[in-house]
Amino acid sequence: MIKAGIIGATGYAGQELVRLITQHPNAEIVTLTSHSYAGKDYDEVYSNYSHKNYICEEEDIEKMADICDVIFLALPHGVASKKINNNILNKTKVIDLGADFRLQDIDVYEKWYTTHYSKDILSEAVYGLCEINRDKIKGRRIVGNPGCYTTCSILSLYPLVKEKMIDLSSIIIDAKSGATGAGRGLSLSNHYCELNESVKAYKIANHRHTPEIEEQLSYAAGDQVVLSFTPHLIPMDRGILATCYAKLNGKYTYSDIRKAYEKYYKDEYFIRLTKEGTFPETKWVKGSNFVDIGFTVDERTGRVIVIGAIDNLFKGAAGQAVQNMNILFGLDEKTGLDYIPVFPA
Hints:
With 345 residues, the protein is α/β, with parallel strands linked by helices. It has two domains: 2-146 and 314-328, NAD(P)-binding Rossmann-like Domain (Rossmann fold, 3-Layer(aba) Sandwich); 149-310, Dihydrodipicolinate Reductase, domain 2. It is 30% helix and 20% strand. The chain has helices spanning 12-22, 61-67, 80-83, 86-89, 106-112, 119-122, 130-137, 148-162, 192-195, 210-221, 254-265, 314-328; strands at 2-7, 27-33, 56-57, 70-73, 93-96, 126-127, 142-144, 172-177, 200-201, 228-233, 240-247, 271-273, 291-298, 303-310. Strand 13 and strand 14 form a beta hairpin. Helix 1 (12-22) packs across helix 12. The radius of gyration is 20 Å and the shape is globular.
């Protein structure tokens, strides 16, 4: 059994990790930590675990590294780089659900986030978008687990960028997220009366997932990608819907574009291409590790419109982290993740 430790187990993504590892046939939780609830029974925070005897422990990452095969960090951005060093990585593997090990350009990271404290190991980290970087993930000691908006956006556009079918300067991403994407911390903007019966854009032209999307699509294109990304908060618990627009570089038909997606995704279990004329909805991926992608060609404007949907806590966070764990330890990627989406929910 893979012995797993979870730091930050009482956030939404951390709780989803606890749930997935608890049900994983080849892994077990040997320790979970929470700064806010240290010493409390886990079911005092999440009553759906009343049949389990989990205790929220004080974090001691050095001791965790001695007993864990893998440590998951479900922490705010800027914290993991203070904790992870070569001594830790010599003893255990690390999967960071924050942003600290996603961006390879340290200047870009520090411009959009904060000071990075583990510059010496940053180059060793691999961006854990499994369907694209699978071979790079194998054998690594540290994985930067992608963000939810970025997972949905990158996978939605990757084949078009890779095949040079779209104008790289024309990409616009309009994305919507459920409230859990903002985390479990108290915030006025997430109060019921503020969120309900409303949709709003936020962090316009300066959302921190923008450089992450640009960096990965630039690698795919072999050229610099600069795009417009606008996130929106909508009154539902979980889910991401990304609507992506781009100018086509030629007179491509639906069939042409379909072939490009099938070239890269036909063997990817967790990516489902919708039928022509059918477009993804968040309710069809809820509670699953699936990414649904659909598209259409707007012949009038010469644009392609691509729509992607994921569960932000699953494929956008904890599910992808477990998928990365499976790759790191040589397991079938579907292990512990092969759930049919929950409906209705």
